[in-house]
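Lecture notes, unit on protein representations.

Consider one protein chain, 395 amino acids long.
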Amino acid sequence: MTENNRISSINSLNGDQWEDIRSGVITLCSNFPGEYWRSLDSKREYPEEFVKALTDAGYLACLIPEEYGGSGLPIQAACIILEEIQRSGGNGAACHAQMYIMGALLRHGSKEQKDKYLPKISSGELRLQAFGVTEPDAGTDTLSIRTKAEKTKTGYIINGQKVWTSRAEYSDLMLLLARTSSNKNIKRTEGLSLFIIDMQKAKNNGLTIKPIRTMINHATTEVFFDDLEIPFESLIGSEGKGFKYILDGMNAERILIAAECVGDAKFFLDKATEYASSREVFGRPIGQNQGIQFPIARAYAEMEASALMVDRAAQLFDNGISCGAEANIAKLLSSEASWKAAESAMQTFGGYGFAEDYDIERKYRETRLYQTAPISTNLILAFIAQNILGLTRSY
């Protein structure tokens, strides 16, 4: 496909086709103001009521086909949902994984697996929130993971460890990537398989979860597997194809988190603009000073540019067009835009930016995560250099 054809296949997202969804999310989030999130943050608690409200409203099932009880909407709609959660001052990280994990089950799961799990996920009876990929030694070098799934007469036995497995304590199901072959005569990408784990059955039967306390309320954990037995029907798709299956979901992950970063940037810009207009020092609003205006204006410009890239990536994704470059660039630019907006807000608020009651310091900590996760800025730059510009591989 030529570049002209790629461009012509994209429709603008700036119309009003998603305004009903946007306004619905705004209304829902208005029931969960800053006080709600500050309380959870101080106690490091999971936002159960908020996640339930999103589930009951059908937003977490937006990507699930209607035949399974979902809305069957494109990823563009999911972007709107997550963007507005972040703009409201909330944190979609409590449940966003359910959207991008879903792709592997939808695209590669068996009919039996989809019939078994998807209706219950749509209704909220089951949560698919945990994604077991990263390991302490492998980090983002996924092909070096060592968690093993050894085949037995009745299924598989899992042994190993995962880290940064967020929401494992609050999820009923986990997608797990594990090594099923160590044969050095096959491609490294063909030795990994993907499984869906019933965590309720697995807990205390070979699965142990250990919370990791971090600088933000992110409910992340280490997960240990000690002779965990799972049946054959836990395997998603074909054995040895798991790495390919998770790659399908990584573009969705990048796009959705990029949309969250756009929402974060809008949150900071809203707050900074309002405060700069009302706060008076030396007899005039501080927003009258170019030293305050220019950082906010530059952050706004960078947010707008990154939002266009998110729109582009989302529409390519929904049209089934290869979008690895666009998804990664969208995540890079939007995470940096949100950080610039956070910096401008902190400077605008001055000392009050450090006060919990204004929510700036909490969101400042939360948006910093996306410079590092789910993929670091440096790895995206390496991807661009090597895969787009054709420069020599650096790692």
